[in-house]
Amino acid sequence: MGAAFFPVLFFTAVWGAVGIGMPIMTPKGPHQNLIRCILMLTAACCWLFWLCCYMAQMNPLIGPKLKRHALAMIAKSWDNQLADG
After folding, report:
1. Using an 8 Å Cβ cutoff, are 71 and 82 in contact?
2. pLDDT of the residue at 36
3. How buried is residue 22: exposed, middle or buried, by Cβ count under 10 Å (0-12/13-18/19+)?
4. For the range 2-7, what are the long-range contacts, defined as Cβ-Cβ under 8 Å and sequence gap of 24 or more?
5. Residues 17, 40: Cα–Cα separation, whole Å
6. Quick one: how far is CA 34 from the chain centroid?
7. Residues 7/54, Cβ–Cβ less than 8 Å
8. Can you tell me the mean pLDDT for 2-26?
9. C-alpha angle 12-1-72 in degrees, rounded to nearest 5
10. CA torsion, points 24, 14, 54, 36, in degrees to nearest 10?
11. Which tens digit of pLDDT belongs to each residue from 22-76?
């Protein structure tokens, strides 16, 4: 189970638009450079946070803990035998 191409491309485009497109449209004024910096840092941090969360779902550190009864029901519905042990 790897990364799907579309979500990575979509969210990269969204945060790229925020980080590249929005600073271009900032109004002229004494704080224009500060607003541009804030927009670019916001986009970079949000994209990086999203990417880390997305990648963490590919290989979770903790799996679900199921009781024996729940495992038996799942195995029966999938026509599998439970291994003793």
Report:
1. yes
2. 95
3. middle
4. 2/58, 3/54, 3/55, 3/58, 7/54
5. 10
6. 28
7. yes
8. 90
9. 135
10. 20
11. 999 999 999 999 999 999 999 999 999 999 999 888 887 887 788 888 888 988 8
pLDDT of residue 20: 94
pLDDT of residue 27: 92
Q: Is 66 helix (H, G, I), strand (E, B) or coil?
A: coil
List own/partner pairs for 10-18 with CB under 8 A and 24 or more apart.
11/47, 11/50, 11/51, 11/54, 12/47, 15/43, 15/44, 15/46, 15/47, 15/50, 16/43, 16/47, 18/42, 18/43, 18/46
Q: How confident is the model at residue 2, as a pLDDT?
A: 62
Residue type, 72: A
